[in-house]
Design brief:
76% of the residues lie in helices and 0% in strands. By secondary structure, the chain is an all-alpha fold. It has helices at 16-41, 47-70, 79-95, 98-123, 128-150, 159-179. α1 runs antiparallel to α4, α4 (98-123) packs antiparallel against α5 and α4 (98-123) packs across α6 (159-179). The chain binds fe (ii) ion (2 copies). One fe (ii) ion is lined by residues 27, 30, 57, 60, 137, 140-141.
């Protein structure tokens, strides 16, 4: 059977600097989303689950903080935007209920998982240490997504619409943070 030409990985033309910049921005956004959720859901059953995820995101962010410094990468200029937008997305979805908060988590983590998969493919044999970091973090993001699904994400009202809107927003945020 003839093999279909492989579609280009999403990050195929992306420099390592742009990869670090967007990953740093993404992990920061993730921290802010979970902080927004926790601000609303503290004391509720979901809080300890979310706290565990935010701790992992903080660890991811710390690693990219270090890489930004070591490689002298310019951080995204959009940090103030992600600071507010991330928190607002987390808080707004949490205000609609725990299942909606988890629906948001599932969508965001799916977008990040896709993004990291694209980077892993684009890296090929290059930058093995960086690639290993991305692979490790990708596994954490996949676990976060699974946690969200296990907590009823898909039974949130309006799940499909919400999920595609959030994923689309994440993809735009990723594109912007690579460049700006
Ligand atoms: Fe992360
Ligand atoms: Fe995550």
């Amino acid at each position: 059977m003839p093999r279909k030409p492989k579609p280009k990985a999403p990050g195929a033309n992306t420099s390592i600097e742009a990869m670090i910049r967007v990953d740093h921005a993404g992990e920061y956004g993730a921290v802010r989303i979970y902080e927004g959720q926790l601000a609303v859901l503290k004391g509720r059953a979901a809080a300890s689950t979310i706290r565990h995820m935010v701790e992992q995101e903080q660890r991811h962010l710390k690693t990219f903080d270090r890489l930004i410094n070591e490689r002298r990468v310019r951080p995204t200029a959009l940090e103030p935007v992600w600071r507010i937008a991330g928190f607002a997305l987390g808080a707004a979805t949490a205000l609609m209920g725990e299942r909606v908060a988890f629906a948001c988590t599932a969508a965001v983590e799916e977008a990040i998982d896709e993004h990291y998969a694209g980077q892993i493919e684009a890296l090929g044999e290059g930058e093995p240490d960086f690639k290993k970091t991305v692979e490790d973090f990708r596994a954490d993001e996949a676990a976060h997504r699974q946690t969200a699904l296990d907590n009823g994400a898909e039974s949130a009202p309006g799940y499909r619409l919400l999920s595609s809107a959030i994923k689309a927003g994440c993809r735009v945020a990723i594109k912007l943070s690579e460049k700006i």
